[in-house]
Amino acid sequence: MLSTRDAEFEFGEKVGVIEIIGAIADSKDIIHNLKRFREDDSIKAIVVRIDSPGGGVGASQEIFREITKTSESKKIIASLGGVAASGGYYIAAGADGIVANQGTITGSIGVIMGYSNFQELLKKIGLVPVVIKSGEYKDIGSPVREMTKKEEEILRNLANQIHKQFIKAIAEGRGIEQSKVEKFADGRIFSGEEAKKLGLVDRFGNLEDAIEWAGRMGGIKGKVSAVYPPEKKFSVLKYLVNSSLREVANRFINPRLFAKYFYSPAGCSEN
User: Fold this and answer.
1) pLDDT in tens, 162-183
2) Is CATH 3.90.226.10 the classification given to domain 2-262?
3) Which pTM was predicted?
């Protein structure tokens, strides 16, 4: 099988491969590449290669929506690598078919919310935070005070609502009754072998198998060529500027409370 990193220099019918590696924090580039391949007549099918423990709720949902939108005109196969859990599986559920290894770690159908509380630390160093707010719950999840029972209830309800959205997406994407998905959508992880028995995976195989399957589903009769989106040029200046802006955002703008479709053995998440 022929593979190249740039679709522009390969002729004939091809399968486009889009990689989703690591924590899912932003959907922009992935959506752009899905649209690019969707509108390219020489791309007959698409493989989304997922090796991710999940990530942000919004980003995962946006990619899922773009995959389902794309599948209306072109076949999409999800290829699961070592880990495709939580938001990583959420994305895969929108594809026309899912290929995994028997030992792939997947599932983790749930939502994790959390925050760090610095109240005791602030007391020790003599720092007294002052908060002025316009509403009772404006600083919900504040790291400088204890959470109230009512606030905990509000966040629990929010987590349950987002969890139900996850379950509904899997039920619709995989064609499984929602009541059946609810039985195992408790955050537990599965091996690829277990996931196949539950209907979460269609067949076993590696990336090459997924590309071959996608090509045949897309109507390619001969050799299947796999192409990747062109890699973006790296700019040191842009990286430094963006890194500085992210640091400012993390320190002064972004809330410390997070909600993610994320699998972590330690029970925590990347911020």
Assistant:
1) 999 999 999 999 999 999 999 9
2) yes
3) 0.83
